[in-house]
Amino acid sequence: MYHCFKCGISGLLLEFQRRPEPSRGRKTRGRYVPPEGPPPEIPDEYVAGCRRDFPGSPADDYERSRGIDGVKTGMGFDPSYPFLIGDEWVNEPAVVFFFQDLEGRVVAKQGRMLRAAGSEDTAKITFGKISHGVFNVHVLSGEEVIVCEGPNTAAALVERGYPAIALGGKTTQDWLIEALAERRVWIGLDNDEPGRKAATELLEVLRSVGCEAELLLPPEEGQDWNDVLRENPSFRVPWVCPIPYEPTLEDVRAQCRRMLRHTSGEARDMLAEWEFALESGFKPARAWWRRYGKRLRTLL
């Protein structure tokens, strides 16, 4: 038996040896054609449930301890995510990162095990076809993109207003090269030996297809951009202009859920009514929050 923790494929070793080389994404007459293979195996109901349960969850607390609001990048919480520890499968609470293709379909999920506060002893495992998508794919609709390795690195940059995606590793597929070709790209992989090597190779490939690309490695050896921004939250990423973040209805809904998990009494009733109004399609959410949100916090 074999199992690939990067793409999620499992089976008999003999079958693996007979497998043809997988086809990568390509363009046909200017139209994006996704990589060949089975349709996504991550149900929409699972994705929606994980994202709904994220605000106020242990995963939310973990990300906020790292200076990240996971709602902005669509993170999720799974209280019983499967991990392979040694030779045994165990189910543990996890923060879940979703990878999407250019059509917005979730093609892979990556879970990071939640441990006790302050512990760096974590495990992660991926299911699906991570090479067919990226984390925070909607950024590819803009003119500038920062390419990172890990989801938390991209999320930390997004938190400061920078347009970042995560590969979930160091490998960039052909379909993504083509998607980046007409944009200005900053390569922000980790500043370690494998990261620098992969960044240099990616720089050459992007420039060969006419892309305006530059290296944007963290300033110190061994760092990623999440490390930099945790140590110095006011640090400005050089040469890249942050985009002002405009809160959405989902941001307000997430803030309500966080408070509802930790409050009681009159404030809880008020928030419950507001959540009902949001679900009923009440539109002026941001205006309401700007006007009453601060007062609500003083009640809690």
TrEMBL record:
Signal peptide: none annotated. Gene3D superfamilies: 3.40.1360.10. InterPro entries: TOPRIM_DnaG/twinkle (IPR034154), TOPRIM_dom (IPR006171). It holds the Pfam family Toprim_3. SUPFAM superfamilies: DNA primase core. Residues 143-221 form the Toprim domain. Residues 20-43 are annotated as: Disordered. GO terms for molecular function: helicase activity. Keywords: ATP-binding, Helicase, Hydrolase, Nucleotide-binding. This is DnaB domain protein helicase. It comes from Fimbriimonas ginsengisoli Gsoil 348.
